[in-house]
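Quick one, T. Sequence first:
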Amino acid sequence: MAVRHLLLCAVVVLAMTPAAAAALYPPGSTNALLSSVDASGGVVEVTRYWPRRPVDVLVIPYRLYFWNTCLPGDGAILILLTSPLDLPPPWAMLSPYYSPSTEPAAFVQAHVLGRLGGLIREIGPTQPTLARALTQAITPGTLSYEAIKGAWAYVSSLRVYEQYGFATFLLIRWEWRFPFPGCYARVVSVPEGYGIPDVR
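Structure tokens:
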């Protein structure tokens, strides 16, 4: 398992686009790590406070986790992104497991944006600040959208996440961006056993 993760991480660093290629965070260097993917259960397991006070949390796609507010110091709001298509991640083209398929990018993007749009409608009345940040993330031409649009290729089904040992998350957190500090989104792909950035 350790060798598998090392090989996967090496390929991820070489092959990921800048939008999704966050630095790899060793276990314990962040407040949370991706523990495992359970496709049959429809969840991924995230372990927080490892190794001192580990707490396992089951994360379901397109639900909000780990936040207080979108203000400085409150960490990141985490959303697990999935697609109904079993598409290998881009770096899998370098492996013998890759099998070419029809161009799925438009379908995956429409699916993700549609699910996030539904989440915006659900939380809008009670959490308007977070709803605005999510709206920016799915609106073409905004800073958040432009920063994450290249990461849609890393969104796949839980079956693929489980097979390849990774998961893709949308993070919304405070950034001191000049001249407009506020809540911004980014998408990260995290290998199993590695830290999820920004989560408190």
